[in-house]
Amino acid sequence: MSTTSHHLTGPAAPWKSLFLDHLSKLDSPEFVFSSLHAAPKGSPIPYVPHARYCIFRGMWAELPENKHNDAPMNKRVYESEMPTFTSDVRMEKIPDIFASSAGRGDKSQSQGSGGGGPVEAVFWIKDVMTQWRFKGEAFVVGQDIEGGGEESSGVRTVKSEIGSMMRAVSEGEENAWSWSKELTAHFGNCSPVMRGSWKNPPPGTPVSEEHPDEEHRLGQKVTDLHDPIARENFRVVIIKPEEVEQLDLSDPTKARRWKYTFAAEKGPNEEATGEWKKQELWP
Fold first, then answer.
1. 120-164: per-residue pLDDT in tens?
2. Please, which residues have CB within 8 angstroms of residue 12's CB and are 6 or more apart in sequence?
């Protein structure tokens, strides 16, 4: 595995099992994802919020089994508390994640892996009247994540930042785990119609404009896991949370709210470690 040599040690986050149990109650695990978008020219502020609905695709390195997914899968070597979703590199959220990061990446840099911009993700689970809010940074995984010769600074950033929050659960098999295999498995986890959406005309462009070519049109079905156009546009976005809030409104006479904050540390051998600190707040 070509990545950072240090991974997270310690137990799973205390909120993880309950959060996943709540998600299992949803017909479709949808959430609101917010990023920072560059404000219009002349604005007195640098950014404005942009929000949209996305679909939760599992925690990074824990892609759920899907009998319809014929892509090769990594063994369960790692686990994490980092939610994922899929996106199109041509959508605004991807350059947002780069431009609002500490590195202030431009649009050309957003064509590959990288990012690190501040984001929020909010889930509402009506069956249990509970809201979950994730605050942290988002990182983008593209085809350059592995096997492309010398690694870009964006690839190194992703492997360092995300790798530091991946917890090994199968000792001795770390080198067999592949970033590119995980990316392809996420692509295979999507339906042929969803895969075909990455061959749509450029999102957000006027319908009156001429399409780039006949390969870019609506309603296509993609069965090839390595379709060159779809894979060029396909991305997995990973949210690296720093804070997780749980707001329980199930009892109207006594609402409760908890905040979990990750306190990162370094172990005696420079391994990444830390713990989630829990604090109850007034709702």
1. 999 999 999 999 999 999 999 999 999 877 899 999 999 999 999
2. 79, 81, 167
Q: What count of other Cβ atoms lies within 10 Å of the Cβ of residue 82? A: 22
Task: Provide the 10 A C-beta neighbour count for residue 265.
Answer: 11
Among the listed residues 26, 19, 17, the one whose alpha carbon sits nearest the alpha carbon of residue 132: 19
- For residue 58, the tally of other CB atoms under 10 A from its CB is 20
Tokens of 145: 């994540």
Task: Compute the average pLDDT of residues 9-13.
Answer: 88
Q: Grade residue 268 by pLDDT with cuts at 50, 70 and 90.
A: low
Hunting for tokens 């005696």 — which residue is that? 268
Residue 157, sorted as left (phi over 0), alpha (psi -120 to 50) or beta, turns out to be alpha
Q: In terms of DSSP H, where are the helices of the chain?
A: 16-23, 93-99, 153-163, 179-188, 192-196, 228-233
The span from the CA of 147 to the CA of 151, in Å, is 9
Q: With a threshold of 0.70, does the pTM exceed it?
A: yes
Q: What tokens appear for 206 in the block?
A: 């006027």
* Identity at 159, one-letter amino acid code: K
Q: What distance in Å separates the CA atoms of residue 190 and residue 54, rounded to the nearest whole number?
A: 14
**How many CA atoms does the CB half-sphere of 4 hold within 13 Å?**
20
